[in-house]
Amino acid sequence: MHIIFVASEAAPLAKTGGLADVVGSLPGEMIKMGHEVRVIMPYYRRQIDGRSIPIRHLADMRVWMDGAERLVPLHEAEINGLSFLLVEQDELYDRPHLYGPPGGEFPDNPLRFGLLCRATLAAAIDVIGPVDVFHCHDWQAGLLPLLLNEQYRHFPALAKTATVLTIHNLAYQGVFGADWIGRLGLPSHFFHPDGIEFHGYINCMKAGILAADGITTVSPHYAEEILTPEYGCQLEGFLASQAHKLSGIVNGLDTSQWDPITDKALAAPFQAGKMAGKAACKAILQQRLKLEADANAPLLAVISRLAEQKGVDLLTNNISGWMDAGHQLAVLGTGAPYFEKALHELADKYAGRFAFHAGFDESLARQIYAGSDMFLMPSRFEPCGLGQLIAMRYGSIPVVRATGGLYDTVADYGASPSAATGFSFESATPEALAACVASATDIFVNKKPTWKRLQGRAMRRDSSWHASATRYAELYEELARASV
Ligand code: ADP
C-alpha cells in the first residue's frame, strides 16, 4: 500500500514530544513489511537546516488559502530510507518554535496547519500520485479527511484514498474562532454541534474524528478513557457517537535508536545481565549534574514536558521528603514558566542532591535514562507515553500513575511481583506517588536480587513497533478495501 503520514513534527527533523518519535519510527516498520510510506510535514527551516541532511526540491505547488493563491515548494529529505516531504512556507514555518513561544501558541496556527493539509492533498494530486491511506496525526492534520471528502474526491489520485486519524493527545484539539471557516475554505454547512462546531468555535480534532474512516488512539486504555467525562476533554459524547471506528493501538519504539548497547551518548554500554556499564553511567551522570558521587543513593529521574498533564505538582510536593530520605533526583524538562521557577528554587535549595536542567537535550536525556535507577511519570493522563518504554529498556524502573498507556505498558509489582516491570499507583495525589516511590525504594535498597530480576524483565520487554505496526497495517487494509 501507498501510505502518507501527515504530521506537524517527526524525529529526527523536528521534535517537541512523543508524536515526533512515533511519526519518525512507525513508518520504518511499515516499510519493512513491504509498504511504501512517506511522511509529510512543514519545512521548519530553522530546526531542519544546518544538520547536513541533503534536501532535494521536488516541485512547486499552488495552494489556495486565506484569500490568496500561494506558491508552495515541496522538498524531500531521505533519512534511513524514509522519505520526508517538506512543505515550504517560510513566512509560516521558519520560526524559533514549532507551535508558539513557551506556554503559548502562534495566532496563525490554523493557517499554518490548514496549509499543511491542503498542501498534502495538492502533493498527492500534482507530485506523488494515488495514495491508499492518509494517516493523519493529531489536530494539526485533522482537517485533511474533511477537506478530502468534501472538496478533493473528484481527483483520480484521491478517489479511493482512506483516512486514519490518530489521537496522540485529546487535550490539544485545535480550537479556533469561526472566522477561520472562510479563511481556511472549510465547508460551512458542517458548522453545527454534530459537525465541526465546538461551543461556537471550530475544532480541528473534531473535524478529523467526524470525517476520518478510522480513528485510533495510542493505547487501548486511553481509547476507553476518552469516552468518559474525566478524560474526554468535552468530546466524550461526540467520540461515543463515532466509537464504532475507534480503536487503541499502543505505541512502540525504534529499538535500534533506543538501545543501551549501542547508544553513542552513553559513556559505557550495558544490557540485561551485563550491568556494569549502568553503574558507570550513574557515576558519570552524578558528576555531570553535580550530584554527590554515591552509588547507593536511589537516583530518581524525570524527563518531561513541564505541563499540568505530567503531574509536575505531585513531584514538587515530594522533593523535600525525598531529599530527607536520602534520594537523589534529576529533572530534565521545559514548559510552564511557573513549574520551571519552582524547580529552579528547589534545585538551589538541594544542590548536590537535586539537579534541574531546563531545556530540551536529547543527549542528556539518554544519559539520564541510563544513569538513573527509577523513572517517575505521575501523569494525570497519559495517552501512551514513551518515557516509560525508553526507561525500561535502559534499566530505569518506571514508577507511574496507572492511566492510559502507562497502565497498558508497565506491569505493576504490587499486582504480580514475578511478572512486574515497574510500579504503579492509582490516585493523582502527592501521597500516592510518595508511597509508590517508597515501595520501590524498599526493594532497591533491601532486596537487591529482586530488583535485578525486575530490571532484567523491564529491559527485555518487547517495546518494538512490530506488533503495533501489524495492527495498523490490518486497519489500513480493512479501510482501503471498504473505500474501493
Ligand atoms: P509527550 O509526547 O506527552 O511529551 P511522551 O512520553 O510520549 O510524552 O514522549 C516524550 C518524548 O520526548 C520522549 O522521547 C522523551 O525522552 C522526550 N523528551 C521530553 N522532554 C525532553 C527534554 N526536555 N529533553 C529531551 N527529551 C525530552
List keywords for this structure.
single chain, about 475 residues, alpha/beta, Rossmann fold, 2 domains, nine-stranded mixed beta sheet, six-stranded parallel beta sheet, 19 helices, globular, binds adenosine-5'-diphosphate
Overview of the molecule:
The structure is a single chain. The protein is α/β, with parallel strands linked by helices and 484 residues long. It has two domains: 2-252 and 466-483, Glycogen Phosphorylase B (Rossmann fold, 3-Layer(aba) Sandwich); 276-460, Rossmann fold (3-Layer(aba) Sandwich). Helix content is 38%, strand content 20%. It is built from 19 helices and 18 strands. The strands form three sheets. Strands 3-4-5-2-1-6-7-11-12 form a nine-stranded mixed sheet, sandwiched between helices. Strands 15-14-13-16-17-18 form a six-stranded parallel sheet, with helices on both faces. Helix 4 (109-128) packs across helix 5 (143-152), helix 5 packs across helix 7 (204-211) and helix 10 (276-288) crosses helix 14 (362-371). The longest helix has 20 residues, at 109-128. The chain is globular. Bound molecules: adenosine-5'-diphosphate. Residues 17-19, 21, 303-305, 332-334, 360-362, 365, 384-387, 390 line the site of adenosine-5'-diphosphate.
